[in-house]
Design brief:
The chain is of the alpha+beta class and 73 residues long. The protein has helices spanning 2-11, 66-72; strands at 15-20, 26-36, 40-45, 50-55, 59-64. It starts with a helix and ends with a helix.
Length: 73
C-alpha cells in the first residue's frame, strides 16, 4: 500500500483506492497523492475534484490505476 502511495507522489500518477469514510461509508476513489504524513496523506480526489485528507488507517485497498496501466501497454 505505502509503495503505491509513494509512487503516486513521486511520479504524479493516479491510483485507485477503496476507502472507508468517517461515517463508515465505503467509496472507491481515484487519487493523486500530494503529501504523505505519519497517519494521513493529502491527495487530489477525482471524485470530489479537490484536494482531500485521507487517514491511512481507513484505506481498505490501493490498486494501480487501470487507465494508466492500459495506456502504457
Amino acid at each position: 500500500m505505502n509503495l503505491l502511495l509513494e509512487k503516486s507522489l513521486v511520479e504524479k500518477i493516479p491510483v485507485n483506492m477503496i476507502y472507508m469514510a468517517a461515517n463508515k461509508q465505503i467509496t472507491q476513489r481515484r487519487i493523486i497523492v500530494r503529501e504523505i504524513h505519519e497517519g494521513f496523506f493529502k491527495a487530489y480526489c477525482f471524485l470530489r475534484k479537490a484536494d482531500r485528507l485521507f487517514k491511512k488507517e481507513n484505506i481498505l485497498s490501493v490498486m494501480p490505476d487501470k487507465q494508466k496501466f492500459l495506456k502504457s501497454s
